[in-house]
């Protein structure tokens, strides 16, 4: 098997990956900030919005992922998903102009608009683009691929924080959503003419039909046959529960509690995260050398240390150090788990298993994390007047709770490590075939 990914495919990975991550960053950070600024200063809307979109995203990945496996095609799902993803990002911004009273109607409208956008985002990115990158890669280059996937959300966060902050500060939210949504739609149109499915990708159709194939991934024997993969999923879930305790509110925290402008908050996050990205290159070597457990341990320790520093800090130099530490943890664990997942996915069920990954990486963390945040903010936040309206503002307590939850990531890492060692040892005992040595 060839160890290289073609230059054209690398270009598509970066273009589609970055445009998708920018759009996800807008949802994960700016949607929340937009709701707080334009709809209501109530964390309940954000908690509902994050939870419902996570559930919808997961369902979309399962349904469309199974469909793409059965079709033996990823391209049409990528194109349609991205085009409509951008369209409905603009639609979400238009909720600013809808009536704000009664409050429950405004809340339902905002949550529904976010859910529709998330459905098409998961269709294009999670259910189709992610499996496509697995189709065109192999176990000997997925450390580099994981590094790209870890770098993209960081660059998207930097772009989203700095450039988005400048646009929002100058033009307000709706023009910002039009620009960003239009960009993602254009990328979807471009994919129609440039992207090709992996030549070896084949349609996998169960004789008993779609529903039987869809349900097959939920059987107990599927878990038993993929024990290492499921423990890695649990690692993902626990780490990102901690992440989702603080991340949806980090810009709100910097802006309202520490009284920073959107641009200053963006620069602070951007500088810390860019520095963290530099570690993806040495990490890729460790991952490709079969040492993902070591990288995950370093990631957890760095993330916890960074969050504790942020908890104790109000000065920019220390905040920058804390963001760097938390950023290193985020980048390295995302890079490592991306490669680890892709190496373990059953070849005939890659689209479906992206759905399972969504359960553990998006649905569970984005339901539990913001729910924890809601109670922390309700009982540990402070009431203050913002733009003439009373609201509840999150405090530094969020970061301490996030650090404590993140420490629990070490627990599922223990069985995952044992299964990984056993698999690697068994593979080393297998005879080497000539075709495996071809480049």
Write a brief caption for the model.
The chain is mainly α and 439 residues long.
What does the model show?
With 439 residues, this protein is an all-alpha fold. It has one domain: MFS general substrate transporter like domains (Growth Hormone, Chain: A, Up-down Bundle). It contains 17 helices and two strands. It has helices at 7-39, 43-71, 75-93, 103-135, 142-171, 173-194, 210-216, 220-225, 227-246, 250-257, 262-277, 280-288, 292-312, 316-344, 350-380, 397-407, 410-428, and strands at 382-386, 389-393. The protein has a two-stranded antiparallel ribbon with strand order 1-2. A hairpin with a 2-residue loop joins strand 1 and strand 2 (389-393). Helix 1 (7-39) runs parallel beside helix 5 and helix 9 runs antiparallel to helix 14 (316-344). It is globular and about 65 Å long. 52% of the residues are buried. Keywords: Cell membrane, Membrane, Transmembrane, Transmembrane helix, Transport. Residues 1-418 form the Major facilitator superfamily (MFS) profile domain. This is MFS transporter. It is found in: Cell membrane. It is a multi-pass membrane protein.
């Amino acid at each position: 098997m060839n160890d290289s990914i073609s230059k054209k495919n690398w270009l598509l990975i970066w273009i589609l990956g970055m445009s998708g991550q920018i759009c996800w960053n807008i949802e994960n950070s700016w949607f929340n900030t937009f709701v707080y600024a334009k709809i209501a200063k109530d964390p309940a809307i954000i908690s509902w919005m994050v939870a419902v979109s996570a559930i919808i995203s997961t369902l979309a990945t399962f349904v469309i992922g199974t469909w793409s496996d059965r079709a033996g095609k990823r391209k049409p799902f990528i194109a349609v998903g991205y085009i409509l993803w951008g369209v409905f990002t603009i639609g979400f911004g238009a909720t600013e102009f809808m009536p704000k009273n009664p409050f429950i109607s405004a809340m339902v409208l905002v949550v529904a608009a976010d859910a529709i956008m998330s459905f098409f985002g998961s269709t294009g990115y999670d259910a189709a683009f992610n499996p496509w990158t697995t189709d065109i890669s192999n176990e000997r280059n997925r450390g580099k691929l994981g590094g790209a996937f870890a770098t993209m959300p960081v660059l998207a966060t930097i772009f989203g924080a700095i450039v988005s902050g400048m646009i929002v500060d100058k033009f307000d939210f709706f023009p910002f959503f039009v620009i960003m949504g239009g960009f993602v739609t254009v990328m979807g149109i471009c994919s129609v003419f440039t992207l090709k499915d992996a030549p070896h990708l084949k349609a996998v159709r169960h004789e008993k039909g779609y529903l039987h194939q869809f349900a097959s991934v939920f059987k107990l024997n599927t878990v038993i046959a993929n024990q290492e993969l499921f423990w890695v999923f649990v690692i993902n879930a626990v780490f990102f529960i901690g992440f989702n305790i603080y991340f949806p509110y980090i810009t709100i925290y910097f802006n309202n509690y520490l009284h920073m402008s959107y641009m200053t908050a963006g620069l602070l996050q951007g500088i810390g995260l860019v520095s963290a990205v530099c570690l993806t290159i040495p990490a890729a070597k460790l991952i490709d050398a079969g040492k993902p457990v070591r990288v995950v341990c370093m990631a957890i320790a760095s993330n916890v240390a960074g969050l504790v520093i942020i908890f104790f800090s109000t000065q920019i130099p220390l905040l920058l150090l804390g963001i760097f530490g938390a950023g290193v943890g985020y980048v390295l664990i995302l890079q490592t788990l991306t490669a680890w997942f892709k190496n373990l996915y059953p070849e005939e069920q890659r689209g479906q298993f992206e759905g399972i990954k969504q359960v553990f990486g998006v649905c569970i963390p984005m339901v539990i994390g913001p729910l924890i945040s809601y109670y922390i903010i309700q009982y540990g936040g402070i009431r203050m007047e913002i733009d003439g309206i009373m609201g509840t503002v999150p405090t530094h307590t969020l970061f301490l709770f996030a650090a404590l939850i993140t420490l629990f990531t070490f627990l599922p890492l223990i069985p995952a490590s044992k299964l990984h060692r056993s698999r690697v040892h068994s593979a080393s005992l297998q005879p080497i075939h000539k075709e495996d040595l071809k480049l």
